[in-house]
């Protein structure tokens, strides 16, 4: 396997490259993102995915766009006045925001950039100064991610270990299950739910991670498998339909998942299949923990029923992409890949939501970089005010 140093985005000055996650784990291809259109397209096509990572790419694309303009000779006309700058940048932010609808982090990032822009205009600053400030905010949005991931991972892991200890007879190390991919590839580094698992491993408290394949995009079997292998974390993959069986036959201490949007009451949108896992976890008395940054908490959305759920094209659920097996390599030693259709041609009824909503009632704890929220005794909803 490759040792490219797991990352979703790498930057050098204003040069942005992303790993094309559609080709992982067999081919590591970096794609340069040098326009706002390319950033939008990469997010929409899921070449980059994961709520924090798509927000970072949008923010970095704006950062690079503005820095290039500030260096350009002659300067573009839209840097001539604050009004012209605003008329140029705001539509770019609106456009980036339309790339994917469910992950609130993308909207949070574009709104934050927009607020920096508006504040600069309102303060009567020079267009170049405002552009520099918006660019700096873009860089900051990306940089903040890794630090907060490490914090939430520690909060969540320590809380879980304390819960297990409280029940008595705590095992030396825990088995934990996760869904989708929430690690370095889904964020700017370390990860959220996968960060918690990594923290348990680093502190000698993880026996084994279980992860679902997370069909139809296989974020689990392609990406989480790749990350866990590279981190040398003992791990076992299961098909999405095997979660109930896993809980019946193995001692799983917790299910830990990420989130694309957490409503004010704690209802959580995450990768489709998360709700199934939560129902089964409740049935088996297994704690269900959501780990996400504050930017994923959407206090403007009262409950899960208001969260927009992205429907992906039907065709995507009919296709599987991967390396030819037995492996066949080209002259450069690169494994050949193919996309194959697993359904009969012309199937016209396909249900393909990208996310589902797990009701707060089924969630044991919500962890952010600020801390851990649990429901009050007997409550079905969270009060998240202490963790945002
Ligand atoms: O469709 P995706 O791959 O972007 O979905 C990703 C997820 O659902 C993740 O669990 C979520 O974004 C959290 S990533 C830290």
From TrEMBL:
Please name the Pfam families in this protein's record. IF-2B
Q: Which InterPro entries match?
A: IF-2B-related, IF-M1Pi, IF_2B-like_C, Initiation_fac_2B_a/b/d, M1Pi_N, NagB/RpiA_transferase-like
Which residues act catalytically here?
260
> Which reactions are catalysed by this chain?
5-(methylsulfanyl)-alpha-D-ribose 1-phosphate = 5-(methylsulfanyl)-D-ribulose 1-phosphate
Q: Which UniProt keywords apply?
A: Amino-acid biosynthesis, Cytoplasm, Isomerase, Methionine biosynthesis, Nucleus
One GO BP annotation of this record: L-methionine salvage from methylthioadenosine
Site feature Transition state stabilizer: at which residues? 180
The EC code for this enzyme is 5.3.1.23
Pathway given for this chain reads:
Amino-acid biosynthesis; L-methionine biosynthesis via salvage pathway; L-methionine from S-methyl-5-thio-alpha-D-ribose 1-phosphate: step 1/6
* Broad class of where this protein is predominantly found: cytoplasm
What does UniProt give as GO cellular component?
A: cytoplasm; nucleus
Q: Where does the record say this protein resides?
A: Cytoplasm; Nucleus
Describe the task this protein carries out: Catalyzes the interconversion of methylthioribose-1-phosphate (MTR-1-P) into methylthioribulose-1-phosphate (MTRu-1-P).
Q: By its UniProt entry, which PANTHER family does this protein fall under? A: METHYLTHIORIBOSE-1-PHOSPHATE ISOMERASE
Q: What is this protein called?
A: Methylthioribose-1-phosphate isomerase
